[in-house]
């Protein structure tokens, strides 16, 4: 049944629909921006399937002289770019509403109830043909006609078109001309009751989506590193930030996976940059271990989690609020976090700034919980107040030199629970971050007293965190007086709730809306005070299991019995002994590179030789300890950071390369070395290896290749050769082994080498050469595991290895490198297989020019200009 006609002047809802590829969202947003410029309030929402061409798309734009918080259910004017749109949306038309369509479309008799619906045929195709334009220009004609029907002039629309196609004068001209033709035609041939009144002087509102507002908030907050993997509905943030990277000076990059994205973000944060990533539920499932790494290592990061319906891929382009409890509980173990859920574009901007401040002040991860509806819908609003932004970086020591009387302790036990951070590369101090439980210096520990002390330290932050959140209006109340009914909601339910207050008020019902903005820590007191005696209450959330309701009950005991839950289709100083006997600023020697920590590697393990070789190379290069960062994965090699007195980051399994890459981008002056086991690099981390090789960051990866899993007590590894009997291959391995050398060559690595721990001088030369190389360098090191590998022993290698450098091999000859890479029988080559420099990944980032990123000051001031571009 159709609703009665829309009687209030100055509120019109348009629906523009057609096939994917017909420019539906663009058309809708152009109309929305034009009407915003005309001084009207707008709210625009798109609806599209997850396909590129074909399929039905539509964009709903509600326009009014008063603020619009959400789109209306009913439509006044349908702009049908195909017949399907007209028929599909008939039931949404208000009585007296109309359809603008191409006069070439024929409706069957009875298809349209003409007594209730006005038909506005326009020669869309003919007008476009007249100016020789492409078919997509039909929507410009239709927009011109729509503007005419609601009694407005074309000037704002023409202005928006001129900016959208700036520099392409012929495109601007032809579009303006068809807009005018459509406008004239509609005025001459049709009449419509609905009217919009443009303001005499526009208050200069902007029209933005939630994604754009979050991106602007991140820029305003001084975010300097954003890494993400494309995923609806988070991709728009990536697209916007990368389009503005040179203006903002932010490093923005598309990672090879969500795992890489979040571990890069943690790596950049470790170095000292404000860092952020964004994804949706499926991507956040992959990110949870990295999220825990941020929690354990106390590296502040911000994650934008854009919800969409799940489980699994669910409906990629629709909206839901079903990841609330997931966000609050994600990752193993316990650590404090912030989860904030903005409800509209203004919240998106301000709450993003708050998320960065809280994350850095308390050195914790923060989640901005959005959803498709919030992130992709346009809303007009006054320009965000860039002047009011205050950046609070907490206890971050930004001095270039460590002047502390004692050695720096990354995880110093403090009363507040917050341990002062330093910028990676601070002269005279090294910093060890560790995803394993650790002591104050960052060294791995299982000492029960130390473990409890560290866990308590982390959680001591929470009291002050709660106080801070209470000062940030974590619960907002809309509506006044004694309410008959109180609506309670979060996130994008805010818009519909505010519209509901308006409608209920019109019917004499006193209603309030309580918006919960901070979900973790949950603002219990603020919530209870907001609820007071609010009459009947009703929960609004877009999930089945009443997630906000469960959270309220858990924290306050209150139970809101009535709920409207809808699945909307639309809707670490490493080494307390490190500085002993040395003064900061001295060049590192082998002894100085020893942390003094007890070593737990098996006697005779090749790891000793490998680490010794690396230390000798570092000493030869004359690098200070604070100029070198070692990133290690999980496995026996992972303890390297405990034994190597440079900056260190012991990360999670397989994620050495993204973290090392981000650290190098954050501080290009650091010499960054990644250490990984063969399982770490070529098994779980294989998703990063070819990408690091092709991407070419100026880092060196040293792989402890022992052809077996050591720490987990002797299972097959990706490099285990066929026939090898291990605990998991009792009949002998039957899978082909990964060949790291040829894999690196095929991935376009610029420096590919193999070393052997018992050829020490040769190994030192190789590592030195790799460290001097500009670009990604692989040194795969034959490292006998004396505990578990009885085949690939010292004797095995001593009988077989020969040096490429003594065999006439030309390391610039790629085919020859492939040929040598295949040798693994009576003779096994070691040395440089291939070496050709090309521009590094960092060379391709203009924003990396000049000082290292970590020494650049946060400058959120650039955001004011960017905000104005949305007017
Ligand atoms: Fe070395 Fe193997 Fe012992 Fe691990 S298990 S420390 S790799 S010998």
Task: Please name the defining characteristics of this protein.
871 residues; 9-stranded mixed beta sheet; 8-stranded mixed beta sheet; 28 helices; disordered N terminus; binds iron/sulfur cluster
In short, what is this structure?
This protein has 871 residues and is α/β, with parallel strands linked by helices. 34% of the residues lie in helices and 19% in strands.
What is the 3D shape?
globular
The proportion of strand residues reads 15-25%
Low-confidence stretches: 1-8, 568-587
Rg for CA atoms: 31 Å
Distance between the termini: 38 Å
Q: Strands of the largest sheet, in order across it? A: 17-25-24-26-27-29-28-31-30
Task: Give the ligands present.
Answer: iron/sulfur cluster
User: Mind summarizing the main beta sheet?
Assistant: 9 strands, mixed
Number of strands: 31
Query: What is the count of helical runs?
Result: 28
Structural class: alpha/beta
Helical content class: 25-40%
Overall mean pLDDT: 92
Topology summary:
Elements: E1 11-19, H1 24-37, E2 41-47, E3 56-64, E4 75-80, H2 83-88, E5 93-102, E6 118-122, H3 124-130, H4 138-149, H5 155-164, H6 169-189, E7 206-209, H7 210-220, E8 225-228, H8 235-243, H9 245-248, E9 251-254, H10 258-271, E10 275-280, H11 281-297, E11 301-307, H12 324-329, E12 338-340, H13 345-362, E13 365-371, H14 372-376, E14 378-381, E15 396-397, E16 421-422, E17 432-434, H15 448-470, E18 475-478, E19 485-489, H16 494-506, E20 511-516, E21 518-520, H17 524-531, E22 536-541, H18 547-556, E23 562-565, H19 606-621, E24 628-632, H20 640-643, E25 647-650, H21 656-666, E26 671-677, H22 678-684, H23 689-695, E27 700-705, H24 740-746, E28 751-756, H25 760-772, E29 777-782, H26 794-798, E30 801-803, H27 814-821, E31 828-835, H28 863-868
Parallel strand pairs: 1-4, 4-5, 5-6, 8-9, 8-10, 10-11, 11-13, 12-13, 15-16, 17-25, 19-20, 19-22, 22-23, 24-25, 24-26, 26-27, 27-29, 28-29, 30-31
Antiparallel strand pairs: 1-3, 2-3, 2-14, 7-14, 12-21, 18-20, 28-31
Helix pairs in contact: 1-5, 3-4, 4-6, 5-6, 7-8, 7-13, 10-11, 10-21, 19-25
The chain binds iron/sulfur cluster.
Iron/sulfur cluster is lined by residues 601-602, 605, 607, 636, 706, 710-711, 785-788.
């Amino acid at each position: 049944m159709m609703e009665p006609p829309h009687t209030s002047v100055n509120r019109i809802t348009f629906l523009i629909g057609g096939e994917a590829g017909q420019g539906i969202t663009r058309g809708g947003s152009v109309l929305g921006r034009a009407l915003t410029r005309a001084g009207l309030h707008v709210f625009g929402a798109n609806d599209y399937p997850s396909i590129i061409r074909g399929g039905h798309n539509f964009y709903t734009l509600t326009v009014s002289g008063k603020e619009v918080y959400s789109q209306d259910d009913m439509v006044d004017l349908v702009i049908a770019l195909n017949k399907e749109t007209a028929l599909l949306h008939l039931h949404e038309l208000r009585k007296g509403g109309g359809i603008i369509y191409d006069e070439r479309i024929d409706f069957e008799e009875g298809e349209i109830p003409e007594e209730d619906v006005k038909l506005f045929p326009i020669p869309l195709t003919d007008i476009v043909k007249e100016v020789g334009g492409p078919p997509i220009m039909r929507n410009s004609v239709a927009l011109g006609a729509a503007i005419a029907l609601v009694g407005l002039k074309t000037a704002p629309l023409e202005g928006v078109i001129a900016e959208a196609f700036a520099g392409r004068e012929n495109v601007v001209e032809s579009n303006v001309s068809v807009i005018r033709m459509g406008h004239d035609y509609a005025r001459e041939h049709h009449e419509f009751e609905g009217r919009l009144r443009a303001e005499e002087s526009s208050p200069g509102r902007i029209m933005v989506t939630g994604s754009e507002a979050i991106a602007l908030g991140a820029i305003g907050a001084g975010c300097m590193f954003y890494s993400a993997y494309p995923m609806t509905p988070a991709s728009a943030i990536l697209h916007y930030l990368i389009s503005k990277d040179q203006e903002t000076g932010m490093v923005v990059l598309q990672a090879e996976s969500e795992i890489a994205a979040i571990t890069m973000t943690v790596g950049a944060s470790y170095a000292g940059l404000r860092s952020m990533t964004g994804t949706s539920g499926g991507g956040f499932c992959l990110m949870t271990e990295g999220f825990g790494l941020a929690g354990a290592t106390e590296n502040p990061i911000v994650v934008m989690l854009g919800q969409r319906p799940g489980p699994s891929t669910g409906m990629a382009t629709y909206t839901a609020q079903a990841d609330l409890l997931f966000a609050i509980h994600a990752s193993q173990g316990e650590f404090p976090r912030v989860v904030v859920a903005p409800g509209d574009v203004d919240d998106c901007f301000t709450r993003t700034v708050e998320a960065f401040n809280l994350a850095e002040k308390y050195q914790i991860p923060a989640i901005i919980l959005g959803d498709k509806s919030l992130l992709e819908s346009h809303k007009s609003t006054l320009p965000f107040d860039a002047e009011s932004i205050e950046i609070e970086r907490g206890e971050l020591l930004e001095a270039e030199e460590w002047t502390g009387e004692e050695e720096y302790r990354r995880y110093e036990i403090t009363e507040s629970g917050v341990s002062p951070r330093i910028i990676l590369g601070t002269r005279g101090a090294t910093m060890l971050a560790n995803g394993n439980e650790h002591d104050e210096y960052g060294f791995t520990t299982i000492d029960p007293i130390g473990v409890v002390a560290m866990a308590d330290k982390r959680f001591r932050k929470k009291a002050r965190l709660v106080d801070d959140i209470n000062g940030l209006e974590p619960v907002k109340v809309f509506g006044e007086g004694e309410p008959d009914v109180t609506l309670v909601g979060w996130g994008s339910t805010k818009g519909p709730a505010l519209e509901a207050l308006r409608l209920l008020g019109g019917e004499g019902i006193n209603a309030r809306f309580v918006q919960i903005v901070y979900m973790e820590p949950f603002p219990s007191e603020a919530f209870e005070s907001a609820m007071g005696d609010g009459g009947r209450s009703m929960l609004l959330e877009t999930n089945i299991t009443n997630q906000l309701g469960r959270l309220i009950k858990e924290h306050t005991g209150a139970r809101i019995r009535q709920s409207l839950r809808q699945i909307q289709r639309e809707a670490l100083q490493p080494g307390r002994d490190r500085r002993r006997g040395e003064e900061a600023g001295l060049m590192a020697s082998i002894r100085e590179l020893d942390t003094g920590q007890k070593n737990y590697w098996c006697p005779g393990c090749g790891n000793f030789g490998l680490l010794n070789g690396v230390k000798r190379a570092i000493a030869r290069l004359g690098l200070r300890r604070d100029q070198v960062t070692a990133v290690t994965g999980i496995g026996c090699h992972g303890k390297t950071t405990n034994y190597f007195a440079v900056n260190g980051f012991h990360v999670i399994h397989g994620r050495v390369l993204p973290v090392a890459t981000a650290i190098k981008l954050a501080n290009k002056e650091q010499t960054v070395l990644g250490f990984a086991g063969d399982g770490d690099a070529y098994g779980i981390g294989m998703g990063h290896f070819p990408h690091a090789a092709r991407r070419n960051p100026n880092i060196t990866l040293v792989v402890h290749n022992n052809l077996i899993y050591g720490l987990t007590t002797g299972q097959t590894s990706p490099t285990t050769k066929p026939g090898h009997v291990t605990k998991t291959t009792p009949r002998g391995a039957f899978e082909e082994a990964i060949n790291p050398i040829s894999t690196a060559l095929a991935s376009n690595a610029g420096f590919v080498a193999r070393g052997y721990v018992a050829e020490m001088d040769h190994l030192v030369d190789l590592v030195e050469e790799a460290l001097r190389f500009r670009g990604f360098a692989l040194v795969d090191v034959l490292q006998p595991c004396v505990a578990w590998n009885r085949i690939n022993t010292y004797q095995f290698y001593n009988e077989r290895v020969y040096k490429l450098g003594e065999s006439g091999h030309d390391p610039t000859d790629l085919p020859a490198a492939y040929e040598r890479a295949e040798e693994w029988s009576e003779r096994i080559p070691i040395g440089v297989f291939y070496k050709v420099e090309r521009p590094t990944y960092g060379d391709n980032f203009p924003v990396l020019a000049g000082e290292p990123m970590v020494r650049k000051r946060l400058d959120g001031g650039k955001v004011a200009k960017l905000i104005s571009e949305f007017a």
